Amino acid sequence: MDKILEVKDLHVNFATYNGTVQAIRGVSFDLNAGETLAIVGESGSGKSITVRSILQLLAKNADIAKGSILYHGDDLLQKSEKEMDDIRGNKISMIFQDPMTSLDPTMPIGKQVAEPLLIHNNVSKKDAMARAEEVLRLVGIPNPEARMKDYPHQFSGGQRQRIVIAIAIVDYPEILIADEPTTALDVTVQAQIIDLLRELQQKIGTSIIFITHDLGVVAGIADRVAVMYAGKFVEYGSVNDIFYNPQHPYTWGLLDSMPTLETSENNRLNSIPGTPPNLLNPPKGDAFAPRNKYAMEIDEEEQPPYFKVSKNHYAATWLLHPNAPKVDPPASIKKRFEKFKELGGSVK
Amino acid sequence: MVDEREKIVQVKNLKQYFNIGKPNEVKAVDDVSFDIYKGETFGLVGESGSGKSTTGRSIIRLYNPTDGQILFNGQDISKIKSHGPQMKEFRREMQMIFQDPYASLNPRMKVKDIIAEGLDVHGLVKGDEERDKRVRELLDMVHLNPEHMTRYPYEFSGGQRQRIGIARALAVEPQFVIADEPISALDVSIQAQVVNLMQDIQKEQGLTYMFIAHDLSMVKYISDRIAVMYHGKIVELADSDEIYNHPLHAYTQSLLSAIPVPDPAIEKTRERIDFDHSQPFSDDQSLQEVLPGHFLYCNAATAASFK
């Protein structure tokens, strides 16, 4: 497959009054042409920082301490601000979480959608507006010709998010980064937006990096999934690997703490105890160890490397070490393993 | 069988309008009736703008209802004065847990003063020693370290703050607690902690909950019965299993069909049901019991078809 983006050993620190926060502690991943990679994790795990690093949209106190981000083999971290301007919103664009604040309230929406074209391409205003109208129709805004002159407040939340998507795709980007694009929306609207993103991907062949904390949404949209915790990917693999053959206890915990529609009120929800670590002083060993009931002595001492589960499926947990004792995963996870076998996978 | 249970809250034809008589009049809650039984968890779901939060806020009298009755333990509380002794007594019996654990705690107050505010207002404790003792008990109940009672809200995480909000609500020993999206601002791994805590406390103290949320899988898990709201009306009400297994209203069906499930095989074959929003209601419709304990907003002919 065609790798269009390679992030290698990314480290991002933030200087704060209390000291240096190590927000990203060694993240590496590839993105292939036309695929959707989902990054899941809790707030503060570093998923937004990871993707903002790609476009260098970080706060002033951020420092990309180490690593490289290769876009078609070219390191984006070596580019000047001016060179980045040519990439942002053009080759790589971003959909932000909150459709209420990511539009300019004082500008008609047609102009906002056409803006990237006018900035990046040498097109006439007329052509740009025509294209904006076409894209607004594509994302499902009814009567775009009439509504181009309307302002953001005249649209509903779901429609605004469609407009934000229209801005992001108007220049047919190669990579679309969607940072929690549906979190602020109702479930029925969320389902429509996800359908729309899938449809657009087929039409314009863009690759998507989709950030969310909702595993249900991930199951519907992702080809590959990375699970993030305390500034690192703790497990990554295909969508089937992560949902039917998860290996990291944190992935187990996330999947296990969601009630499914089958969970009855008689059985208690399984929660992950405790809270994520403070990245001002990241723990010496595995950051998840204090919340992990399967933790071993080595977890306190040394960070686990990535163990290979299968082709393209890796997890950073000492439980996968050949000498680790066999543990008993939660019941709901064992059910998932059963499903994995039915699908023809082999479970360790 | 249903009527053997004791009703703690009876809402009768509740209407809550805003900007009455003006062009921008909003019928946020439009003729809603339902009962909540003692000891149960009553789930209220709906999308943003459906009127679910307004319903909760009208019941606890943060608003003055436009019309209708709210009976609490048989007594009509819809018209009691906002600042009278009756209201004070009522507010002790009914408490609220809010959605945003960041905005709902006063940043300038210590945790112990936040939790004890209700105790002070109602004169439930005498002297600092008893007050501190009670605060310690409450913090212990919500699994927070009682030593942290002199800290300020910013020193706590979102999940911990929500526990403080729960401790504050329970300090005055209410019978009925309205929880308005208590977990939607929390991370997945923390949501389960808070829900488990709420259920444990309910069992210990025999509380009744009204749980308002848009996360349908969590509502189904926690609720005994669920009402679905749409455009200010309850369109369907039934036992939670019944509503999930046999949804009758087209809106409920569309809502259920949109819930993402953490299972790729299910997601890939999902068929969404679209709901036609153009003409949701007609004048001949009302909320009717079409099957035992299962209420549907429909007309007489539809209701008869279930007989």
Largest interface: A-B, 42 and 45 residues
Number of strand elements of chain A: 12
Our measurement of the CA-to-CA distance between the termini of chain B, rounded to an integer number of angstroms, reads 19 Å
Mean pLDDT of chain B: 92
Number of helices of chain A: 12
CATH architectural label of chain B: 3-Layer(aba) Sandwich
Number of helices of chain B: 11
Largest sheet of chain A: 8 strands, mixed
Q: What is the CATH T-level topology of chain B?
A: Rossmann fold
Oligomer: heterodimer
Cα end-to-end separation of chain A: 27 Å
CATH architecture of the largest domain in chain A: 3-Layer(aba) Sandwich
CATH C-level of the largest domain in chain A: Alpha Beta
Please characterize this protein's 3D structure.
The complex is a heterodimer of chains A (348) and B (307). In chain A, helix 3 crosses helix 4 (125-138), helix 3 packs parallel to helix 6 (157-169) and helix 4 (125-138) crosses helix 6 (157-169). The mean pLDDT of chain A is 91. Chain A folds into two domains: 3-222, Rossmann fold (3-Layer(aba) Sandwich), CATH 3.40.50; 227-342, P-loop containing nucleotide triphosphate hydrolases (Rossmann fold, 3-Layer(aba) Sandwich), CATH 3.40.50. Chain A has helices at residues 47-55, 81-87, 109-120, 125-138, 144-147, 157-169, 187-204, 215-221, 239-244, 249-257, 297-301, 331-342; strands at residues 3-16, 19-32, 36-40, 62-71, 74-75, 92-95, 175-179, 207-212, 224-229, 232-238, 307-310, 313-315. With 348 residues, chain A is α/β, with parallel strands linked by helices. In chain A, strands 6-7-8-3-9-10-12-11 form an eight-stranded mixed sheet, sandwiched between helices. Chain A has twelve helices and twelve strands. Chain A is globular. Chain B has 307 residues and is α/β, with parallel strands linked by helices. Chain B has a single domain, classed as P-loop containing nucleotide triphosphate hydrolases (Rossmann fold, 3-Layer(aba) Sandwich). In chain B, 34% of the residues lie in helices and 25% in strands. Chain B is built from eleven helices and twelve strands. In chain B, strands 6-7-8-3-9-10-12-11 form an eight-stranded mixed sheet, sandwiched between helices. A four-stranded antiparallel sheet of chain B has the order 2-1-4-5, covered by helices on one side. In chain B, helix 3 (111-121) crosses helix 4 (127-141), helix 4 crosses helix 5 (158-170) and helix 5 packs parallel to helix 6 (188-205). Chain B starts with 6 loop residues before the first strand and ends with a helix. The A-B interface holds A 42-43, 157, 186-191, 195, 213-220, 239-240, 243-244, 253-255, 257-261, 263-265, 268-273, 275, 339, 343 and B 47-48, 157-160, 187-193, 195-196, 199, 214, 216-218, 220-224, 240-241, 244, 254-255, 257-268, 270, 272, 275.
